[in-house]
Every structure is written in structure tokens, then in C-alpha cells.
Task: structure prediction
Amino acid sequence: MPEEPIDELERHRAELYVRLAETGDFRPGSVNETWRRCGKPNCACAQPDHPGHGPRYLWTRSAGGKTRSRQLAAAELDKVRREIANYRQFVAVTEQIMQVNEAICEARPAAGTQAPPGPGAGGRKRHPRGLNVKLRPRTQGDFPGVPRRWPRRRGCPS
Ligand SMILES: [Zn+2]
Result:
């Protein structure tokens, strides 16, 4: 990511907050079209070339680890699709807001220190005050409860 001056970053962040506030109603999930056979042997849908009854439109989303669905009335369809599109936009803008905030945090000097070297200063940014802080990549092992390695191979016969 190219380094931008902090005022540029702040302007970008302000624009993103405006976009966030402009997000309309939104909801997560997806709309799926389903066709099904009713199972009655004399029904037309029992024929092999019949697609089944439908379409039914289901709004499906996961909540609390469970997948939940609700059948939509035809009149709701466009509205729900719009709301789902708004949700995707909300998520995308939120992601950008996180990124720009992270960049601002990195660019803003701590109180009483000089501004970090701008673009062209060469090399990595020095830590303010020259503290001897070792940066290390974030790994899964840094999070409690998350195994360092996926234990798939252990006890697996193959
Ligand atoms: Zn049928």
C-alpha cells in the first residue's frame, strides 16, 4: 500500500464515513430460487422432465452458527435483493474504513515525537522514539484457543 500523507488519509476516511451513513436498509444473506417435487405420484411434477413446483424464493442467512431461511413473497423480492446489496456495500465500506484507520494510526506520530519519515525516506518506518520493539507477523498462535496448527494429520491413518 503506497504511503499517503495523513491529511489525505483523513480526507479519505471522512468520505468513507459519509458513504457509510448513506447506506440504506441492509440485511445479510442471499436469495435462492428453489423448485421442489411434492411427492404425489399423480402430480405433473412426478414426471422426470418436470422441474418441480416453483419457483419459491428463500432468503437465507446464517445467524448464531445456524442457517435460517424464510420464504419471500413475490412483492418482497426486489426489496430484499436491494437490502442484501446494501449489506455487501456496508461490509466493503467498513473494511476500507478499517484499513484507512490503520494507516492513519501508523502515520500519526505519538505525542512529543517527530513525524515519521515520509515517502522516499527509504526503508521501513522507524518506530517513534526509537524504542527497540520487535515487530513480528501475527500468527494464529497469538490468539488463545486457536490451535497453532490444524491438527488434521494427527491420528489420520492415511
Ligand atoms: Zn407436485
Residues 139-143 have pLDDT under 50 and may be disordered.
